Amino acid sequence: MADKTLTLAFSCIGERFYSLLDNLSSLSIPHNVNIIVIIQKPQFDTHNLIDNTSVNVIVLDNIGLSKSRNAAIMYAHSDFIWFLDDDVLLTNNDIEAVLAIINAGNADFYRAQIGCIEWHDKTFKQYKSVKKPSKLNLLQISSIEVIANLTFIKNKQLTFNENIGLGTKYQCNEENNFLIDAWEHGARFTFVDKVFVRHTCIFENRVLANNEIFEIRGATASRFKIVGILLLIRWTLRYLITEKKLSYISALYKGYFRGYSSYK
């Protein structure tokens, strides 16, 4: 049986393009791995750049992380796709390990772990071993952890919701709702307890909390019906302690009772 093919699909803002290329130039890319870089509204001339790199560069004249992910789905032609950002760090060993897993496994979606660039013995978040993933587990996944069966995605006509995610009013949960869509279409998930990608663990530039972030979290919870109410209660107690802002709690319930379909 032929080795499965993999696309590394990087979403990129222009200012990080050169550092991304530096990282990629240090890699030995196997024959069955393709690289796509999606640049949105670059602030520099891309014509010579595209002509002088072996990387497949796609330039979009819009913004929004979900639009970038959807462009990657459109332009990729491989068995699997790995959704990545322009500030991650990969090694040859990481790529080889992912290829080994998708060749040996039968899942449609694999969740990898994220390590820290600064501390190689630490992870980006706390992980628990998940032997039998549930729909609720999908709420804990970040997009750069996702290695997905591209044929499944295209056959089921799955796309990221372009009204949510970075670059929109509602700056998160686009990957979680994409994965919930896949789950509801019968996708098989495997959670891999290994680090395959690294990201900074210095969080000073993270998106700050705002009402809209909590609103879309509430809308996402609405996809769990009665269990969503239990999520709201849990999150209410947590955010009252950590955030101490009643408008966030109000936004959670606003999103839940509007329902996720109102944000599509």
TrEMBL record:
InterPro entries per the UniProt record, alphabetical? Glyco_trans_2-like, Nucleotide-diphossugar_trans
One Pfam family, please name it.
Answer: Glycos_transf_2
Q: Which SUPFAM superfamilies does the UniProt entry name for this protein?
A: Nucleotide-diphospho-sugar transferases
Q: Where is the Glycosyltransferase 2-like domain?
A: 13-130
The protein's name is Glycosyltransferase 2-like domain-containing protein
Organism, by scientific name, is: Thalassotalea profundi
